[in-house]
Design brief:
heterodimer; A: 328 residues; 12 helices; 24% strand; B: alpha/beta; six-stranded parallel β-sheet
Chain lengths: 328, 356
């Protein structure tokens, strides 16, 4: 396994790879030797610290986990696929659709490779169970999703400068909005045709990007979804999550309020409903590689999610609803 | 000394008349004289009034009393405004079931008439119920700082459709209901938002669908909607509203709120408190404790109205508040029709708004 990047997400991914017990970290490619050296210390066997070209040219590396700066995700992923590597791309996979389409096209040329966008939320235990219940028909056809998704404002490495810069993050609807949008679209099973978004700042009024937003989504199968997201709650981490899915024969509700909160000023115990999601996500990708299966999250689905997130960001910026069009 | 009960009459027995009859009969501040239906009403309406009077052991009245009393309007929604005008013009106080009217023109005429009438005119709201007033008290005490957003989910349970709605047409046929579930239920959420924030909605963007119900589909009205609001001062709100096959509640309606403030957040479930029952067959059932917010909110509204009638003051929820609600519902339907965010044209204020 090669890791592209050495920031916060690369650190989390490396821990998840090690926890999965399914991959050996062979190399870390980064512009920061200092950070990479620190990450290498976590690995059971010391990985090489090289540049991205070295990573792509290394025949002993079978798969590349693309972290690092968002604006480089698509280019690195495309080149990795062209170099014959399986690819996991941290979300968002690109800042625009033309860049991501190059990844999709490169993957289409190599159907033997497993390419997947990392949507960690899907692998949270509560969400996995929701998806399973919907897929098994427990509520008939899912036609209404209401997500209330609130996280704490202050957590380590949050709100670094790049996250506030839309040219680097894509904007908050793309950077973080992809979590709830991916989930809403996955649960409904239709294709979004129109979105409308509003944003606001919760307690830092002069923050240049809204820390909170909601997105209403209309689907091609008469379904609706609304996702309210706030990274502005006073307590840190994941204080409140509520997901309602209404179907033709029943409804599903997960509410984190029912979960015991284990929190102290110096320690936050991750709730069981979200625990070890990154490890589950990476294990799913690695299992698909090892068992020669198709990607657990097809790239064409992630393209739909990215297109929806980009449209939602455009809606937030313009104050207008945005219609989504199929890829030409 | 105990004050003499206020005399009351139910006008029309089409929607919720049975419930009001029970609540008025049980309320110490009111005495119920009987059921009245307008002589020009349909045979169906007059038959229903007779049946309701018989079932409740009440008189069937052929005219409204000469002496001022409280007239509770329980006709179909599209007749609400006309029945209310009739009662106001005869010097009565008026309480109108929801929605108070089905058009902004009707509600504007009502507010104009109420401004020059001796009687009080108001509509039904849940804003005076215990969940709302307790939440407002917490917000007023500063526990969450300034409100930045409210997320409301109000969903009716399809399993209760046959018992909570007298006839499906009353919420599905626009000739009777004035619209679909947005017309039927959105007002509760708007009242809650205004009462908790002290702000009026200024813009609405609404998406609606008929995703579940054949009856709604047959009448061409929505069964669900997701709605984005911009309130004054940049505060936002979302409302998920409608009727779904299985609402997440043991009650006919599920109503929950999430309120994010500058210094904290609140979550509210209007259907609490509740009791969980686990039985040997492996089933679990949730039971409500108490009468439920629907009845409790109307009892609180009646108590507030009794004070206003006796003191000659405005009630806590005025016809102007109801008019803001109808104007907002109207704007939501405009947004659904045009597919665009719609500014909310608030009604001309003739009587005070006390909710905000």
């Amino acid at each position: 396994m090669g890791i592209a990047g050495s920031g916060t997400m690369a650190r989390a991914h490396i821990h998840a790879h090690i926890s999965s017990g399914m991959a050996q970290i062979a190399a870390i490619a980064t512009s920061s030797t200092e950070r990479a050296t620190e990450l290498a210390a976590f690995c059971p066997e010391p990985p090489a610290i090289i540049d991205i070209d070295g990573l792509l040219a290394n025949d002993t590396i079978h798969a590349i986990d693309v972290c690092g700066h968002t604006q480089r995700h698509a280019d690195v992923a495309r080149r990795a696929l062209q170099a014959g590597k399986h690819v996991l791309i941290e979300k968002p996979p690109a800042l625009d659709l033309p860049a991501f389409d190059q990844v999709v096209d490169a993957a289409a040329q190599r159907p033997d490779l497993v390419a997947m966008v990392g949507q960690t939320v899907r692998y949270q235990p509560a969400v996995s169970e929701l998806i399973r219940a919907v897929d098994e028909g427990d509520i008939g056809d899912a036609r209404l999703v209401h997500l209330s998704w609130y996280a704490g404002y202050v957590w380590p490495r949050a709100w670094r400068g790049w996250q506030l810069d839309p040219d680097k993050s894509g904007g908050h609807l793309i950077h973080n909005g992809m979590h709830s949008l991916d989930l809403a679209i996955r649960l409904i099973g239709g294709t979004p045709i129109r979105v409308f978004a509003r944003g606001w700042n919760t307690y830092a009024p002069d923050l240049p990007t809204p820390d909170s937003f909601h997105v209403a989504i209309e689907f091609d199968n008469s379904a609706l979804a609304i996702a309210e997201t706030s990274y502005g709650l006073r307590p840190p981490a994941n204080p409140l999550r509520r997901i309602l899915v209404a179907g033709s024969e029943g409804s599903l509700l997960h509410d984190s309020l029912a979960e015991t909160e284990l929190r102290s000023p110096t320690h936050i115990e991750e709730p069981a409903s979200v625990r070890d999601a990154m490890t589950h996500e990476i294990a799913a990708w690695l299992a698909a590689i090892l068992n020669r299966k198709t990607s657990p999250i097809p790239l064409h689905f992630s393209r739909t999610v990215l297109a929806t997130a980009i449209a939602a960001q455009e809606s937030l910026d313009s104050g207008q609803p945005i219609e989504l069009k199929a890829r030409p | 000394m105990t004050a003499r009960p206020i005399r009351s009459v139910i006008s029309g027995a089409i929607r919720h008349a049975d419930s009001y009859a029970h609540l008025l009969a049980a309320h110490n501040d009111f005495t119920l004289l009987g059921i009245y239906e307008h002589p020009d009403a349909s045979d169906t309406a007059r038959t229903r009034a007779r049946e309701c009077a018989n079932e409740a052991g009440l008189n069937l009245l052929d005219r409204l009393p000469y002496e001022p009393c409280l007239v509770v309007i329980c006709t179909e929604p599209t007749r609400h405004a006309a029945a209310a005008r009739d009662a106001l013009q005869n010097g009565h106080h008026v309480l109108i079931d929801k929605p108070v009217a089905t058009s902004t023109q009707d509600v504007q005429e009502l507010t104009d008439l109420a401004a020059t009438s001796p009687g009080i005119c108001t509509g039904v709201t849940r804003a005076l119920g215990s969940p709302t007033t307790r939440t407002r008290a917490s917000i007023d005490d500063g526990h969450i700082g300034f409100i930045r957003s409210i997320d409301i989910e109000f969903l009716a349970h399809g399993a209760h459709f046959a018992t909570s709605v007298e006839r499906p047409e009353l919420v599905c046929d626009p000739n009777l209901s004035g619209g679909g579930e947005v017309m039927n239920f959105l007002g509760y959420a708007i009242d809650t938002i205004r009462f908790l924030t002290g702000l009026n909605p200024s813009e609405v963007m609404a998406f609606s669908t008929t995703a579940f119900s054949k009856v709604h589909q047959d009448y061409g009205v929505e069964d669900c909607a997701v709605i984005s609001f911009l309130l004054d001062r940049g505060v936002t709100a979302t409302v998920t509203v409608g009727r779904i096959p299985a609402a997440p509640s043991q009650a006919p309606n599920a109503s929950t709120w999430r309120i994010v403030g500058s210094h904290g957040h609140l979550t509210v479930n209007e259907n609490t408190p509740s009791l969980d029952l686990y039985t040997t067959d492996g089933h679990a059932t949730i039971r409500r404790i108490g009468s439920g917010v629907e009845d409790q909110a109307i009892q609180a509204l009646l108590s507030d109205l009794a004070i206003a009638v006796r003191a000659g003051n405005d009630p806590s929820y005025t016809i102007t508040d109801a008019a803001v609600t109808i104007a907002t519902i109207d704007a939501a339907y405009q947004s659904i029709l045009t597919g665009q965010p719609t500014p909310i044209a608030l009604p001309e204020i003739k009587t005070p708004s006390r909710l905000t």
